[in-house]
Amino acid sequence: MPSCPSPWRNGAGRKADIAGGPGWFLGFAWLDAAAEFSDYQGQDRTITLLRGHGFALDFAEGPPLLVDQPLVPSAFDGGRACRCRLLDGPCLVVNAISDRARVRHAVEIRAPRSGDTGFAVLLSGGAILPDGTLAQPLDTISLPLAIDAVTCAVFHFTPIA
């Protein structure tokens, strides 16, 4: 389960940590208002819209990144200065962030498969966990874990050798 909400690195928003390790991080973030994104220099970032009508990331240089489709992972350089501009109200996202010199990450929207490692954020409810618990949307599980075929955001973090 994610931690209690805490401020973003730059204090401009709020987040809830899901998991992290050397060179990587996974967490939810609430985009409640337009705000500068925190600087993650040297890190790759993938943001996935879970709830809301979307937002644009206006970069200091180059075209904006429009994130207006739920469940479509969008990758970008975490060190690029950008401001989040909401399109029509608050949003909830999940972020995968990794130090590009140490860890590669991948985000896929699908049901977990046997042999998967990493984490899965359930995007619908109804999965029965091995302990008999009924999983709810946005519950997060460590993989591998046998669950019913439920659509998830599946996150892989692979150390660079």
Q: How would you describe this protein?
A:
0% of the residues lie in helices and 50% in strands. The protein contains no helices and 14 strands. It has strands at 6-7, 14-21, 24-31, 35-36, 43-51, 55-59, 65-67, 74-77, 82-86, 91-99, 103-110, 118-122, 140-143, 152-159. The strands form 3 sheets. Strands 1-2-3-10-5-8 form a 6-stranded antiparallel beta sheet, with no helix packed on it. 30% of the residues are buried. The mean pLDDT is 90.
**What's the N-to-C terminus distance?**
30 Å
| Discrete helix count | 0
Tell me the structural class. mainly beta
- Fraction of helical residues: under 10%
Strand order of the largest sheet: 1-2-3-10-5-8
Indicate the low-confidence ranges by residue numbers. Answer: none
- Major sheet: 6 strands, antiparallel
Globally, the shape reads: globular
Radius of gyration, Cα only, in angstroms?
15 Å
String of helices and strands: EEEEEEEEEEEEEE
Q: Which strand-content bin applies to the residues?
A: over 45%
Mean pLDDT metric: 90
